[in-house]
Write a structure and sequence with these properties.
It contains four helices and eight strands, in the order βαβββαβαβββα. The chain is of the alpha/beta class. The chain has one domain: 2,3-Dihydroxybiphenyl 1,2-Dioxygenase, domain 1 (Roll), CATH 3.10.180. The radius of gyration is 15 Å and the shape is globular. InterPro entries: Glyas_Bleomycin-R_OHBP_Dase, Glyoxy/Ble-like_N, VOC_core.
Length: 135
């Protein structure tokens, strides 16, 4: 069985978050979605559970971080090309996201990213096949 990852993120407005990520081209698994959370499909093995803050809080005794003020995690996704990196950032900005940093070109790796509506940071990277170990 392949390993899967489910990233759980608190969101202030579930419907706005669904619209934001839908505009980037992501789909949602209705079987694992309701009024408290939505299961965003990133790939066959990567999912993001967007959970309403009050529901997210039921999973931890620690306070939920205000990701517009502090950074708890950086979520990094690989892309198939530099163009895909730039396209996703452009879509995020058009949907109300922010670009916290300028693009970075290291020759073997190209990176850029965005903050979603709740301030969660999403880094996007494209690596050459040699750098990614696929050569």
């Amino acid at each position: 069985m392949n390993k899967q990852i489910y990233v759980n993120l608190p969101v202030k407005n579930l419907e706005r978050s669904r619209e934001f990520f839908s505009s980037l081209g992501y789909s949602f698994n209705a079987q694992f979605s309701n009024e408290q959370g939505a299961c965003m499909v990133v790939s066959d093995h990567i999912y993001v559970m967007l959970l309403v803050e009050s529901y997210f809080q039921t999973f931890t005794k620690k306070p939920v971080a205000d990701s517009t003020k502090v950074t708890e995690v950086l979520t990094c996704l690989s892309c198939d090309s530099r163009a895909e990196v730039d396209e996703l950032v452009a879509k995020a900005l058009a949907a109300g996201g922010k670009a916290p940093n300028a693009p970075q070109d290291h020759g073997f790796m190209y990176a850029h990213g965005f903050e979603d509506l709740d301030g969660h940071i999403w880094e996007l990277v494209y690596m050459t096949e040699a750098a990614a170990g696929n050569s």
